[in-house]
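User: I'm writing a short report section on ligand binding and want a predicted complex to refer to. Could you take this sequence and ribulose-1,5-diphosphate and write out the structure as tokens? A short remark afterwards would be nice.
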Amino acid sequence: MKIPEAVIKIADDIRVMRIRGASRIAQAAALGLKIAAERYGGNSVDDFINYLTKVKEVLENTRPTAVSLPNALSYVMSRVFKRYNSGAKLKELIEVTIKAAEEFVRYSRTATKRIGEIGARRIRDGDIILTHCNSSAALSVIIRAFEEGKNLRVYATETRPKFQGYITAKTLYERGINVTLIPDSAVRLIMKKVDRVFVGADAVAANGAVVNKIGTSLIALAAHEARVNFFVAAETYKFSPTTVIGGLVEIEERSPLEVVSEEFLKATRNVIVRNPAFDVTPPEYIDAIITERGVIPPQAAIIILKEEYGWALKDYMLRVTSEMEEVSL
Ligand code: RUB
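Assistant: Sure. The structure tokens for the complex follow:
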């Protein structure tokens, strides 16, 4: 059974960043599985499982860093496999896929809203806030505080090379929030005026380190130096279960053509141009992580992982233990 065009389009949109930001990527991936299930034209349970697994792989192999993507796919697939293993019929498996995908999208939207409510309590009237890139979770916090009547001013970084900061600035402007766009390199200078930093996350590791848009760790460093609070807004599905057993979050390296022109590359063949899309902020530079389940110190990330992914962790650990046994034999 061929993968539907609409699913291929979602995968392409994620790859070229027409769909971007960890939450939106996760929601789009869940939607991809839903569309695939709705359009399945075969009549065999095993064929459906193979087909859905292929769809999952296509969606998963789009961008490597946002852990929300594999987590969203596992949310749906684990529910499908559970029913498959207990002998469910095809119709039921299709229904489970659709229901689980819709459930994930609903959860994601509610979680972002809840993060706004919880995070807004960390903003005082008159605060000057700095944010980086374009994070729906961080924006949810800022917009909620503004809606509660707090007087705010926001600095939004441009976020080179893809300028996601423009989206942030435009969104805030359209809400009537006082916003100033700055080049990324102005952060340390501006930090003297800032009261709080809010950023989003693509992944939160078991030790509380946060992977987010390139430049985030420099901002955290500048905030730390200026004794400015640095907050991360992240739904629990951005916590990475594999980091519990030492897995590293892959940092996406994108095309140099997002940084320089083709002419420049041709004219300067020996100049290497790199374009890492994310960096890692160590937990020491993070004051708190705001999740939909409450505010936690970064060091408590492992508790969230244990509560949210306890079942999966047991699985991972068994797999690693048996792999290690195989190696030692
Ligand atoms: C987006 C980015 C965002 C996080 C969180 O990077 O780094 O800060 O994904 O976003 P890119 P959200 O533009 O390369 O996808 O809070 O919306 O999930």
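A remark for your report: The first strand starts at residue 128 and ends at 131. The CA atoms of residues 121 and 145 lie 7 Å apart.
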